Amino acid sequence: MLTFIVILLWKRILLRVSIKESKLFKRVVHEQFPIMKHEIDCRVVIRKNNIPGKETETTGQKGKAATRRDRTNLEKEKGINLIWSDNRQHLATVNLARGNSVYGEKLVLKEGSEFRLWDPFRSKLAAAIIKGLNVKLLPRSKILYLGASTGTTVSHISDIVGNSGQIFAIESSSRVARELIFNVSSKRQNITPIIADARKPREYFSIFDIIDIVYCDIAQPDQTVIAVENCVVYLKAGGILLLVIKTRSIDVTMDPRKVVKQEIRKLEQNSFSILQTLCLNPFDKDHTMVHAIYNPKSSK
Predict the structure, then answer these.
(1) N or C: which end of the chain has fewer CB within 10 A?
(2) Torsion region of 42: left, alpha or beta (phi above 0 gives left; psi -120 to 50 gives alpha)
(3) Vertex 79, ends 39 and 21: CA angle to 5°?
(4) How far apart are CA 230 and CA 223, in angstroms?
(5) In whole angstroms, what is the distance from residue 227 CA to residue 218 CA?
């Protein structure tokens, strides 16, 4: 009897947490990223982990007329969508490797396209987009990704830039890189995995083009210096740097806000102009996304 009561109480707690997360996500989306209006919210088929026979249907909160009306520049310019699933709004990208789920995310089938739900609690880029990141990830973009890990965010960027773009994914751990290769890059022709130390950018062996965007997500005390050195070698003039500042990895004793200001000064001293600084709470505590543009001084 006691066990039954404990289980019942636990289920009620989980339900409250789920409702709270749903309300939080909805509030953040509408208050801080109101331009996201491409909502595919008619009847859709949800497929979890690609398990045959596990498809279920859910009904969104708007009709087909609203869906047609909501086709905005967001879809055209960023390749990012806001869709309804299980009566909640989710970021999503059109799956480039149809039928493949990278990290257990739901696949949503709609009007001949397959969408992958993009979890902001698993991807700092998704969190930054919800918090108002204003950057264009366009087809044909060349992106250098430092700290690719197992490929969660890399795979969504791959969806956005398409087969005409290219992602050079740097990962120093061979064990983690095996998962990246097996689960992600082997199924997507626009990802080039590189097992290398990000501190030695001139030793990368597979970068064959100038880079439009450098994305840095590494947990090192000198993460800003590493990002800058990679930009000096590969990033084009006027290119974009997206730097995730992990304040606790830099100095656990210092106020996170002071750490962010300290790292921003380093960027400004190395020819970067800061466009945006976004705190990623509540998705990632003590993490800040810095959106900067690279303006190297021309040699005389």
Answers:
(1) C
(2) beta
(3) 50
(4) 11
(5) 9
